[in-house]
Write a structure and sequence with these properties.
The complex is a heterodimer of chains A (111) and B (161). Chain A has 2 domains: 66 residues, Winged helix-like DNA-binding domain superfamily/Winged helix DNA-binding domain (Arc Repressor Mutant, subunit A, Orthogonal Bundle), CATH 1.10.10.10; 42 residues. Helix content of chain A is 73%, strand content 13%. Helix content of chain B is 22%, strand content 40%. Chain B is built from 4 helices and 8 strands. In chain B, a hairpin with a 3-residue loop joins β5 and β6. The longest helix of chain B is centred in the C-terminal third of the chain and has 13 residues. Chain B is globular. The chains are: A alpha+beta (111), B alpha+beta (161). Chains A and B meet through α1 and α5 of A and β2, α1, α3 and α4 of B.
């Protein structure tokens, strides 16, 4: 639940995308997102609380890295997507039954 | 329903989403149900509380397609998508581009539908190729945000597993 909420915010989603390429110091994320440092730190705290990122301190820099959890998120997105399309295709099954019946009827009238 | 649960969704590459589903009908009918707007409107609307308000298809190579999905209570804003047909080969292949009004997919994506038939049953394979991995993930994620067919509890369960 927490993971999903954490990722639902577009800036945090983008942070995760950036970290997919490898660990980055906060300053780098600030620069790339075009947000102010306090905002970025707030987002990172949420991501960290959700277990999506890890932080280590190197000299005076705080470096953030992705934890394996985002892969799970991708699985969840795929499952969600699958359900939406399965709902579509179950209705399509119904439409096809109708088309088949119509075609059969037409076939009979021809003969 | 007899075919339910047979839908497979995979990510064959960083930029793609692929779906495979078997239908109990010959492929010319599946093709027809995918390309006649009055039929498409009856099934291609996602979660139950959405509907496909606009469905226009100029079914020729270079012809335009236009789709607009609307939430029944107006709780979410419309989702519009435009496309252009690239290949039309009934009943075995259909290729068209898709570009969303809210450009969450970072530009144009390419849809390839292939219909194969075996003893009266059709296997439909739908592949969408996005411009990048971020674009592909954006498309998957949007699927998660729209509609309310799946409870968040279910998703939380999945995250734990």
């Amino acid at each position: 639940m927490e993971t999903l909420q954490a990722l639902a915010e577009p800036n945090r989603f983008q942070i995760v995308e950036l970290l997919r390429e490898g660990p980055r110091p906060v300053g780098d994320l600030v620069h790339r997102l075009g947000l102010r440092q306090p905002q970025v730190s707030k987002h990172l705290r949420v991501l960290s609380d959700a277990g999506l990122v890890d932080v280590r301190v190197d000299a005076q820099r705080r470096i953030y890295a992705l934890r394996p959890a985002p892969l799970k998120a991708l699985e969840v997105w795929i499952e969600r997507y699958r359900r939406i399309w399965e709902a579509n295709f179950e209705r399509l099954d119904g439409v096809l039954e109708e088309l088949k019946a119509k075609e059969k009827k037409r076939g009979r009238t021809k003969r | 329903m007899k075919n339910s649960g047979t839908l497979k969704v995979t990510t064959p590459s960083d930029r793609e989403i692929a779906m495979t589903r078997i239908f109990d009908a010959p492929r010319h009918l599946v093709f027809e149900a995918w390309t006649k707007p009055e039929l498409v409107k009856r099934w291609l609307y996602g979660p139950d509380d959405w509907r496909l308000e606009v469905c226009e298809m100029d079914l020729r190579v270079g012809g335009a397609a236009r789709f607009v999905w609307r939430h029944s209570d107006g709780k979410a804003k419309d989702m519009g998508m435009s496309g252009v047909f690239r290949e039309i080969a009934p009943p075995d292949r259909l290729v068209f581009t898709e570009t969303w009004d809210d450009d969450w997919t970072g530009g144009e994506a390419l849809n390839t539908l292939s219909f194969t038939e075996h003893s009266g049953k059709t296997t439909l394979t739908q592949t969408v190729r996005y411009s990048s991995r971020a674009a592909r993930d954006g498309a998957l994620k949007t699927g998660m945000e729209h509609g309310a067919a799946v409870s968040y509890d279910r998703l939380a369960e999945l995250l734990k597993s």
